[in-house]
């Protein structure tokens, strides 16, 4: 019902920015990054609302929060430009978004890690609601079978990823801050503002904030449930070799043979430790995440791999995502997530 209300009633504005994600793929981190970039003119580092407010409150979800409370949700009360989020697949977004100059920031994650994180999250929700005596926690094997059949929140991961990817064919390079309309000045770079935001949004820092250790931002989820460990390759501690191979095979089959699918498939399937060399950044970094920026036309589009670094939610990942450009990489063996940006014509 809430998704239908979102699709029917939401009216996009050309200045809107949407954080779109597969469930349990880095949503919390991406919300923190985008919020901090866009609001740095308003708040100093020590005044950043992230210190006292969960990222999901600062960047509300349209179908799970705003339209679940009121089908005629008046989101025009939110400050402009509005920063919102969704898990809805690209082809199911409201027409007002698809027909506007809406900017979309999308993240997807290695499905093996995404699945394990999703399974843990389901268990944490049951515990959070104190209904263990009424609802049996789903077993890993049972949840894995459903995931492999595509029976997952907001649809199969492969359809979700390809939907946003196919909207991204034209892609010159751009930094995420520039895409959002809040580029960093040379003075800010020299003063370490990028590093401050990267540190603020690191997994370790967000997880250790009191606001994310205690309490909840809605009746269903404790704030702590969004911060488990943020490690790439953690799936190996839970999935058997045969399960891992099965999911990799499914990903390869479902993503197909197109150039775009091959690229996404490489993100989904690689899983060994490695380093990527970024010639323009002048560094070598252990890899877990990187960004690709895209849009449907050359005038409004952005790029291919331009960020890589240590730790799925690490400050290094954030630093190179929000403020640095790197176009040439080698030794591509381990990737934890991919970020895509889209701006309509």
Describe it for me?
The strands form 2 sheets. This protein has a 5-stranded mixed β-sheet with strand order 2-1-3-7-6, with helices on both faces. A two-stranded antiparallel ribbon has the order 4-5. A hairpin with a 4-residue loop joins strand 4 (275-278) and strand 5. It is globular, with a radius of gyration of 19 Å. With 345 residues, the chain is of the alpha/beta class. It has helices at 2-9, 27-39, 55-58, 62-69, 95-98, 111-128, 140-148, 157-165, 176-180, 186-190, 193-200, 203-208, 210-213, 241-255, 259-269, 315-323; strands at 17-21, 83-86, 103-109, 275-278, 283-286, 289-291, 337-343. It is 39% helix and 10% strand.
Annotation, overall tally of beta strands: 7
Q: Given the C-alpha coordinates, what overall shape results? A: globular
**N-to-C series of helices and strands:** HEHHHEHEHHHHHHHHHHEEEHE
Low-confidence stretches: 269-318, 323-335
- Quaternary structure annotation: single chain
| Percent in helix | 25-40%
Quote the average pLDDT.
Answer: 74
Beta-strand fraction estimate: 5-15%
Q: What structural category do the secondary elements indicate?
A: alpha/beta
**C-alpha-based Rg, rounded:** 19 Å
Largest beta sheet, briefly? 5 strands, mixed
Distance between the termini: 30 Å
Number of helices: 16
Question: What strand line-up does the widest sheet have?
Answer: 2-1-3-7-6
């Amino acid at each position: 019902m809430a998704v239908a209300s979102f699709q029917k009633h939401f009216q996009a504005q050309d200045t809107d920015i949407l954080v779109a994600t597969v469930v349990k793929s880095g949503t919390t981190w991406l919300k923190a990054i985008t919020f901090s970039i866009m609001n740095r003119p308003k708040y100093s580092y020590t005044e950043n609302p992230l210190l006292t407010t969960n990222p999901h409150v600062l960047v509300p979800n349209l179908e799970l929060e705003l339209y679940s409370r009121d089908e005629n949700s008046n989101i025009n009360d939110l400050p402009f430009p509005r920063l919102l989020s969704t898990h809805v697949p690209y082809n199911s977004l409201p027409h007002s978004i698809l027909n506007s100059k809406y900017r979309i920031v999308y993240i997807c994650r290695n499905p093996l890690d995404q699945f394990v994180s999703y399974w843990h999250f389901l268990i944490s929700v049951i515990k959070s609601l104190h209904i263990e005596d009424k609802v049996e926690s789903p077993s890993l094997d049972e949840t894995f079978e459903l995931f492999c059949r595509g029976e997952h929140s907001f649809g199969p991961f492969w359809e979700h990823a390809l939907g946003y990817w196919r909207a991204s064919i034209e892609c010159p390079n751009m930094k995420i801050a520039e895409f959002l309309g809040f580029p960093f000045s040379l003075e800010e770079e020299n003063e370490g503002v990028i590093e401050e935001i990267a540190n603020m949004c690191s997994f370790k820092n967000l997880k250790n904030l009191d606001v994310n250790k205690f309490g909840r931002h809605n009746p269903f989820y404790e704030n702590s449930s969004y911060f488990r460990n943020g490690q790439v390759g953690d799936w190996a501690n839970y999935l058997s070799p045969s399960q891992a191979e099965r999911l990799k095979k499914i990903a390869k089959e479902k993503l197909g043979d197109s150039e775009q699918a091959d690229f996404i498939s490489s993100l989904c399937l690689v899983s060994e430790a490695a380093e990527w060399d970024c010639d323009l950044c002048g560094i070598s970094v252990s890899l877990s995440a990187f960004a690709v920026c895209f849009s449907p036309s050359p005038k409004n589009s952005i790029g291919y791999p331009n960020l890589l670094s240590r730790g799925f939610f690490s400050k290094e990942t954030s630093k190179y995502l929000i403020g640095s450009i790197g176009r040439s990489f080698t030794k591509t063996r381990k990737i934890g997530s991919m970020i895509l940006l889209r701006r309509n014509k």
